[in-house]
Amino acid sequence: MITVYVPGDSAARSVGADTVAAHLVAGAAARGHDVRLVRNGSRGMLWLEPFVEVDVNGTRFGYGPVSSDDVDSLLDAGILEGAHHPLAHGNVDQIEWLARQQRVTFARVGVIDPLSLADYEAHGGLAGLRHALTMADDDVVAEVLASGLRGRGGAGFPAGIKWRTVLEAQSDQKYVCCNADEGDSGTFADRMLMEGDPFTLLEGMTIAGLAVGATQGYVYLRSEYPDAITRLNEAIDIARANGWLGNDVLGSGRVFDIEVREGAGSYVCGEETAMLESLEGRRGMVRPKPPVPALQGLFGKPTVINNVLTLASVPMVLADGAAAYQALGTGRSRGTQVFQLAGNIARGGIVETAFGVSLSELVNDFGAGTRSGRSVRAVQVGGPLGAYLRADSLDVAMDYEALADVGAMLGHGGIVVFDDTVDMAQQARFAMEFCAVESCGKCTPCRIGSRRGVEVIDRVIAGVDREANLMLLDDLCTLMTDGSLCAMGGLTPLPVRSALRQWPEDFGGNP
Amino acid sequence: MSAFAPWSIEQAEVVVNKCASRTGPVLLTLQALQCEFGYVHPDAVPLVARTLNVSRAEVHGVLTYYHDLRTSPAPAHAVRICVAEACQSVGSGAVVQRAEGELGVSMGERSVDAIDLESVYCLGDCALGPAALVDGQLLGRLSPPQIAAVIASLRSESA
Structure pTM? Predict the structure, then answer.
């Protein structure tokens, strides 16, 4: 019996992985081979998808990108014995692109069968939860604090401090909410983790819940990710059936359960208080802070809210200890970051590595420049609310502080590359337009400011009263930054101003 | 997509009653109704309000806030093209233009043969764009000719 892996990840499926899998199984059977098909997660080398792997005596050989038309020639070449073929990439563990990374949060993604508990445990799964169950709740929180783990959703707030606040709050009911409303363009790590290694997220949430005294967890998952919703629900059923979710977590007598709640197509629901409103079934409108959700969160109860990647990093912190995690990274940015290379990039995908890698290394080395083959003109870091950087200023180190120093932000780690055909005035306009479409409407600077922003940028582009309108735009940006309730209106000026400052020629000015 | 049940207030009551005991039930109840009937019929608003003991204004507010929820019957097919930055950088604009030409409508409209053309901000396929969600199936690395072929196959399916 030969094991063949064809990713069931939705990105791989979007380029034909299902057909490839079906052809492979049928073709192998027709040639008299007995194969076991595993729909793994993606290794994150997305330009090679569909990426087929064959396990030959414990070594996995990779082939890609495979189209269904390639399947016969691959089988005839003898890929079931790991044979060579023009699409072959050899031993997957030795592919330089992967070998240069430090996979911690993504250690199992693409490697295991996402819904096999046996696979999960064989690759270190549940070690973190088992260890946490032997510790006092205080010590679990202290361990997360000591690891230096910061929120991966964008704000970068230390997870341990949030957990401590919830632990110390007195309440009859507490909650853990996982923010899986990954709406930033250029980000897909949450999705890939939930599809490729869902148990890791459940384990992290369970550790969080038990540590702070919560009995119920919710995953707020965007409706644009139908595969992730299905996979996570299947994983929850398996975890319940195997006794590590529910009324007696791993025989400890302690209670913790998790439910998936589906979003309904609202970007701003990725903002934590809007997410709480949506989880409570209401319009996803932002709440003013304070009170912070750690004290008055879901249904007014103390609530831990963390991003998927934050919670999915927790099992490793508990399994290997805070020191091992803390040893990675730089300055106040500890551990690893899951960077996502997206947009017009030759080798897009997941690069997980310690903080401190340079943007240039990610875009030019890992990413190998643009997919179109033209020169890079702009790179947007941190999603639609993140700044644009010029191709000649990519030497910045990728950590929270270094990016803040150059007026940019890490956000959720998404990196979108544009070639020299991009019109930066249109990108600035789009930032305002997106804000206008997605604003929850609660505060005026965001609701009205974004609409006025589109109009003012249109006038600048058209050359109408240019100087006066540029001054007005600058004033509007200041108002939105200072006066908005949340990051939606507050950070929209970031891409707008970065485009204006660095590409004035696109707005009809002098370069 | 004709898998939806025709609207019936009796069947709606069954759906709503099933959701009534859940925490924070309004949004998920409306989602369940849309899942059953393909849309949320305006007559469902007072039913949901009464059953969940909230005001009709509250239900209306939720129903009209979320992009996903609709109050008129579902299309035969839905083509949702990603128009966010990562897909823009690899030419989603041209894909949108071609789709608009093929269907004879603008983004946000329904064609005469009941195909909805919608924009969506990010499908999480940002390294393999341009991306689209067609009747719930994610498609990547789309080109203008490919979107035309996809639309043609939707039409032959309906015919």
Answer: 0.97
B70 occurs within a structural domain: no
Tens-digit pLDDT profile for residues A93-119: 999 999 999 999 999 999 999 999 999
SS3 assignment, position A398? coil
Domain count, chain B: 2
B35 has a chain A CB within 8 A of its CB: no
The band of B12, judged by pLDDT with boundaries at 50, 70 and 90, is very high
> Distance from B10 to chain A by nearest Cα, in Å?
23
Phi, psi for A286 (deg, rounded to 5): -65, 140
Q: Which pLDDT score is estimated for A370?
A: 98
Question: What is the ipTM, given to two decimal places?
Answer: 0.96
Task: Determine, yes or no, domain membership for B24.
Answer: yes
Is A340–B124 a contact, with Cβ atoms under 8 angstroms apart? no
What integer pLDDT is reported at residue B43 of this predicted model?
97
Q: What is the 3-state secondary structure (H, E, C) of A77-127?
A: HCHHHCCCCCCEEEEHHHCHHHHCCCCCCCCCCCCCCCCCHHHHHHCCCCH
Looking at residue B151, which CATH number applies to its domain?
Answer: 3.40.30.10
Verify that B60 and B20 share a domain, yes or no.
yes
What confidence tier does B2 reach under pLDDT thresholds 50, 70, 90? low
Q: Cα–Cα distance between A484 and A479 in angstroms, integer?
A: 8
Is the minimum CB–CB distance between B84 and chain A shorter than 8 Å? yes
Interface check A303 vs B, CB under 8 A:
no
Mutant choice from B85, B95, B134 vs A, greatest count of A C-beta within 10 A: B85
A contact residues 375-414, partner B, Cβ 8 Å cutoff: 380, 384, 414
